[in-house]
Amino acid sequence: MKAMHFELDARLAADTHPLARFALCELRLMDDANYPWLILVPRVVGARDLIDLDPQQRHQLSDETDRSARLLRDAFRPHKLNVAALGNVVPQLHVHVIARFEEDPAWPAPVWGRVEADPYAPEALIERIALLQGLLRG
Amino acid sequence: MKAMHFELDARLAADTHPLARFALCELRLMDDANYPWLILVPRVVGARDLIDLDPQQRHQLSDETDRSARLLRDAFRPHKLNVAALGNVVPQLHVHVIARFEEDPAWPAPVWGRVEADPYAPEALIERIALLQGLLRG
């Protein structure tokens, strides 16, 4: 039986922490202190690829991606922003928005498969989420 | 002096072949026969990140990305579509649209930095471009 309501993929749920609920997407923080790394997950049942969204949803995702990228820019002043919808491992449609620095452990390569994730310590996680939520409210 | 007209980055020009001119973007074929791989380059002088586009340009880029992804889907029936704006090496804003297969040489990892590019043989390049341009016209 196919779920008729949106459910976050179990692996995405395990690897990320909730940050905000946008009009279309769940905004989550990747639990990897190597990079400021956000994940957007559109609440669209069964969506795997960007082409599974209708044009209105796509434009909304573009707007929410822009908002997330500006959030990382404002919070961290990165050298570059990486935005990607890959999903080869976790098929549920999700968009990575990652702040990149010339000193980060994967630069200039993409982050995937380079170094092991470095989960946030509890205090650092609380601080990071507070910072980002504060900017979102601001 | 900053160029006041759009010029394609020299590395992008060297690594890709022209396919089509969309309203916002140049559509180009990556010269790597390992994967059906398109590159969209918005003709916006000085743009490095998605957040450098205005909302109308962003939505247009979303539409042209969708069109490019559907083109790859129709031509190759891939298992997954990967879409990414990275630009850590080539800073000019460009979007990768890549058809992925469970049998391709990088699966399930992202394609970057996995295997050496495999440039098309001249006949294969002509055939590939003709196929894609035919579908775009159709």
Task: Provide an overview of this structure.
- Two copies of one chain form a homodimer.
- By secondary structure, the first copy, chain A, is an alpha+beta fold.
- Helix content of chain A is 32%, strand content 22%.
- The first copy, chain A, has three helices and five strands; from the N terminus they run αβββαββα.
- The first copy, chain A, has helices spanning 10-15, 55-76, 122-137; strands at residues 16-21, 25-30, 37-42, 80-85, 95-100.
- Chain A is globular and about 40 Å long.
- The N and C termini of chain A lie far apart (42 Å).
- The mean pLDDT of chain A is 96.
- Chains A and B meet through helix 2 and strand 4 of A and helix 2 and strand 4 of B.
